[in-house]
Amino acid sequence: MSEAPAQVHLVMFDIDGTLVDSDEFDGALYAQAVRSVLGADVDTTWSSYENVTDSGILEEILARQGHAADDLPETRALVKRRFLDLTDCYLSRDPDVIREIPGAKTLVETLLSLPRVRVAVATGGWPETALLKLRRIGLDPATFAVATSADSVERTEIMRIAERRALGPAPASRRTYFGDGPWDKKASLELGYDFVAVGRGLAHDLAFENLEDLGAILEQLGL
């Protein structure tokens, strides 16, 4: 008689506003990069964009401006390079501006230690800044699955890719996503994830102000 497959819980996280307190500068620098290269204004509430990811927003702005297809790769690269340069400059002036959401590192490391849990990160940010932020708060991106805006313009597809990287061919018995934005909640509902809101910016029935209460979070996860 074959044994029943192990029950695996996939726990996935956004980065900005969820694991890392970086909203103070990240969106502003992104908007500055787009303005300086394309001369376009950016809706920094992000509510007017179909795909709230670094690549998705850029694609929508490029489409509105009617850029020729032959120019797109170079133009994309210019905007991204400008954003990375602005970020490097900003962090060189204030290297401590990237801060951990309280409890984030302990929570992720605890989850990584549990045999029936898989951890993943799915972020709408570009990989260069996403991985930098994780390392700045003491997390090693090599220890869990990561998918970013370089993998897709769509948040749901980024989450699917992170899931495949975390699980391989085996399905999870439960999937939970921690996020702080309405786009995180929307994508989680579309994909059938349990959603946990982090911070005070999003109305949701299950929310934590930060990730410090490890016991309460693990209890909610059934761990």
Sketch the major β-sheet.
6 strands, parallel
The CATH topology annotation of the largest domain reads as: Rossmann fold
The low-confidence runs, each spanning 5 or more residues with pLDDT under 50, are: none
Classification by helices and strands: alpha/beta
Q: What is the rounded distance between the termini?
A: 28 Å
User: Strand sequence of the main sheet, in spatial order?
Assistant: 5-4-1-6-7-8
CATH-level-4 superfamily name of the largest domain: HAD superfamily/HAD-like
Total number of strands: 8
Query: Beta fraction of the residues?
Result: 5-15%
What Rg do the Cα atoms give? 18 Å
Q: Provide the number of structural domains.
A: 2
CATH architecture of the largest domain: 3-Layer(aba) Sandwich
Enumerate how many helices there are, as a single number: 8
CATH class label of the largest domain: Alpha Beta
**What level of helicity do the residues show?**
40-55%
What is the molecular shape?
globular
| Pattern of helices and strands | EEHHHEHEHEHEHEEH
For the residues shown, what is the average pLDDT? 92
